[in-house]
């Protein structure tokens, strides 16, 4: 089994065709086809459906391990560079949107001065999107909302943030200093999708007060919920950081009685030894958050 064969299969899984995989690896399609065919021969199993370019069940299993193997190989050069005090490499970081808005600028400024030779790639999404990519090795680290579901991942607290009712000031609740879930019961709300971390926080708090909230719509994406709220489609329960200063002219962020702050964590895979650039970015991210002097209102550092 050759490294080039594993690289070819991973490229097909990411680009979905033999020709695009060849372009990504700087070779021709015939080379990709022959590498995959030899790998299939060694494993005595079809790995790619030729008609669709999709991985078979066996192919998906091989790709999951191949990513880890290729990551370990890349880490060798990175670890050697660390010994020379010149860490180089690429780090893929997942990030929930509410965290990225204030963390990424801090991280980029520190990266330029501390590790100028590390290339950082950031993928934004929800826990449900980012967690599987972190488990599979497509991402090296991730900033996620607690709780983290995948048992393959461990987490370290970074900060917590207030959850508030975001509503137009003309709304019947818009001039309240705080609200209870009983106050919210008569109104339809834009809510996160059931089972997502934020929705569990909301449901746990509302059920404790004997209230079942009425969803106008349920979405797995806080940015979309915020956009709908700010476009006038209804009130929502979101992290306080979603209400930026220029929106406070029209909208209010009202504290909700009995709801816990949302915890935000740095997640990484439990097993394996991270490459030097990954270790460096993990430590740098924790440092810039812990020492931040410009965290938005409603953010509480761990």
Please describe what this structure looks like.
By secondary structure, this protein is of the alpha/beta class. The chain folds into 3 domains: 3-76, Winged helix-like DNA-binding domain superfamily/Winged helix DNA-binding domain (Arc Repressor Mutant, subunit A), CATH 1.10.10; 90-160 and 264-301, Periplasmic binding protein-like II (D-Maltodextrin-Binding Protein, domain 2); 163-260, D-Maltodextrin-Binding Protein, domain 2 (3-Layer(aba) Sandwich), CATH 3.40.190. It is 43% helix and 22% strand. The strands form 2 sheets. A 6-stranded mixed β-sheet has the order 2-1-3-10-4-11, sandwiched between helices. Strand 1 (89-95), helix 5 and strand 2 form a beta-alpha-beta unit. Helix 1 (3-15) crosses helix 2, helix 1 crosses helix 4 and helix 2 packs across helix 3 (29-43). The model has no long low-confidence stretch (mean pLDDT 89).
Please write out the topology:
Blueprint: H1 3-15, H2 18-25, H3 29-43, H4 57-83, E1 89-95, H5 97-114, E2 118-124, H6 127-136, E3 141-145, E4 153-161, E5 163-168, H7 181-184, E6 188-192, H8 197-208, E7 214-219, H9 222-230, E8 235-239, E9 251-255, E10 262-269, H10 276-290, E11 299-301
Parallel strand pairs: 1-2, 1-3, 6-7, 6-8
Antiparallel strand pairs: 3-10, 4-10, 4-11, 5-8, 5-9
Brief rundown of the structure:
With 302 residues, the chain is an alpha/beta fold. The protein has helices at 3-15, 18-25, 29-43, 57-83, 97-114, 127-136, 181-184, 197-208, 222-230, 276-290, and strands at residues 89-95, 118-124, 141-145, 153-161, 163-168, 188-192, 214-219, 235-239, 251-255, 262-269, 299-301.
């Amino acid at each position: 089994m050759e490294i080039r064969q594993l690289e070819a299969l991973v490229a097909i899984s990411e680009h979905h065709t033999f020709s695009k995989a060849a372009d990504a690896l700087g070779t021709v399609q015939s080379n990709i086809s022959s590498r995959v065919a030899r790998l299939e021969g060694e494993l005595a199993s079809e790995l790619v459906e030729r008609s669709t370019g999709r991985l078979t069940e066996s192919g998906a299993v091989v790709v999951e391990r191949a990513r880890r193997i290729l990551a370990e190989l890349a880490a060798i050069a990175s670890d050697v560079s660390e010994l020379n005090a010149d860490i180089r490499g690429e780090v893929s970081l997942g990030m929930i949107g509410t965290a990225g808005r204030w963390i990424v600028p801090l991280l980029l400024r520190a990266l330029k001065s501390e590790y100028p030779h590390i290339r950082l790639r950031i993928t934004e999404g929800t826990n449900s999107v980012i967690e599987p990519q972190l488990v599979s090795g497509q991402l090296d680290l991730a900033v996620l909302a607690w709780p983290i579901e995948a048992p393959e991942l461990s987490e370290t607290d970074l900060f917590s943030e207030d959850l508030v009712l975001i509503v137009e000031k003309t709304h019947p609740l818009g001039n309240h200093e705080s609200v209870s879930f009983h106050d919210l019961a008569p109104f339809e709300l834009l809510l996160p999708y059931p089972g997502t971390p934020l929705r569990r926080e909301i449901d746990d708090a509302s059920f404790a007060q004997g209230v079942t909230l009425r969803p106008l719509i349920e979405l797995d994406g806080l940015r979309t919920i915020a956009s709908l709220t700010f476009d006038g489609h209804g009130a929502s329960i979101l992290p306080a950081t979603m209400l930026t200063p220029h929106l406070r002219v029209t909208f209010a962020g009202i504290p909700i009685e009995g709801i816990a702050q949302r915890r935000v964590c740095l997640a990484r895979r439990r097993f394996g030894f991270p490459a030097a650039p990954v270790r460096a970015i993990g430590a740098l991210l924790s440092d810039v958050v812990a020492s931040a002097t410009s965290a938005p209102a409603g953010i509480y550092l761990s």
